[in-house]
Amino acid sequence: MPRLLTKIVALLLFALPMSAFAAEPTKPNVVFIYVDDLGYGDLGCFGQKQVQTPNLDQMAKDGVRLTSFYAGCTVCRPSRLVLWTGRHLGHQPINDNKPYTLQQSDFTLAKLMKQQGYVTGGVGKWALGEPGSGGEPIYHGFDFWCGYLDQGNAHNYYPTYLWRCEGDKIEKLPLKGNVEMGDKLPDSRVAKLDDRKTYSHDVMTKEAFDFIRRNQEKPFLLHLHWTIPHANNEGGRVTGNGMEVPSYGQYADKDWPDTEKGFAAMVTYMDNSVGQLRSLLKELNLEDNTVICFASDNGPHNEGGHDVHYFDSNGPLRGFKRSVYEGGIRVPFIAVWPGKIPAGTENGTTYNAYDVMATYADLTAAKEVPLNDGLSFLPALLGKNEIKPGLRRPDQRISYTSWNTWEACRLDQFKAVRKNASAPVELYDLSQDLGEEHNIAKEKPEIVEIMTNFLKEAKQK
């Protein structure tokens, strides 16, 4: 009798379709590139004519551009805090570059992804916890991080060391051949011109690619917080040129100031790394199961000898870094996921860095996510218009940002700006006035009232 049952079971199994034995769908890998001080107009696919970005342009052709995506803040540290925690600046302890150390109570994107079974890694500028503070990446959801922990030290592209955090170890990673000018500011953040041997971007990129190779059999989250094209501010004051790059490359013979050759070379250098990343994923057969997102942490800088207007880095937008006008906060966003994200598409719905948490939760079907201000933009990436039950429509949501006393919010096409809580609200219709040249507050008192009430409520927990 047992032998007969065995034969029957074997016949039944043979008759089942092969799909019945298929493994559960593999969770997609996620790579999020968050570069430093890149403007809305710095990429070819967003209108740049002189600085070459062929790999990012190809990524846009292969995927989607979000044309109304906003960084977390108009400066670095709070922008990263917004990204990591999914909460806008009204719900954050800082809205400028004052020091802040991540607290254990701060739930991060990395913690969310670890809960979903991902191995988590990152490279680049951290800025939210120096060694010994408890704010280091490995205490906030990251299995691995290599780069700068201190925000100021990240100005120097030729430092004597970076930090490597993995497991329970936080240790210095020496960079061979680099010699700093001195041990006190500003010289401690500037390498001697003849002793610039190891470019930090190359080291961090290699560490990131090695992380991918080590974890190619698992679902992984990788954040590439490259510092390009941030200026070495101290280098600009000491040497006159804060745009540090191994060579001017294809721009060496241009009739441009050296600082502008350096800026262009930095952007193209970073673009080359994006191309190398995509090639590696293809080589490892990970391309089709990996979502790559690209954005900037705020608008373009006017530092280190670089003139923000030289290459029209803010494109058609008003303002740049440290401004809550569009040029300081609206940034280029590109995403690619072969077979999932329709190629050559764009979406103009308003999204923010604080939406990344909700998007990761949507992507991984996370059941429990702590309170955040985000709304998933996964449907926008996938070219779908439906809104899940219980979620607000993106165009009915008011988005918020601030910097020091300045505040701004957006509702559909309307943008409100004020210098401080007692200043009058300026109102712009971005569908007609992308450059924010015409204040229509007097013409739209009902919209001003909505915006003013929201600005009052934005800081309520």
Please provide a written account of the structure.
The protein is 26% helix and 18% strand. It has eleven helices and 15 strands. The protein has helices at residues 2-15, 54-62, 76-85, 109-115, 200-214, 233-239, 258-283, 326-329, 356-364, 378-382, 445-457; strands spanning 29-35, 64-70, 119-125, 144-148, 161-166, 169-174, 220-225, 290-296, 330-336, 345-347, 351-352, 398-403, 406-411, 414-418, 426-429. The strands form two sheets. Strands 1, 2, 3, 4, 5, 6, 7, 8, 9, 10 and 11 form an eleven-stranded mixed sheet that branches. Strands 12-13-14-15 form a four-stranded antiparallel sheet, covered by helices on one side. The N and C termini lie far apart (69 Å).
Short description:
It is built from 11 helices and 15 strands.
Relevant terms:
461 residues; alpha/beta; 4-stranded antiparallel sheet; globular
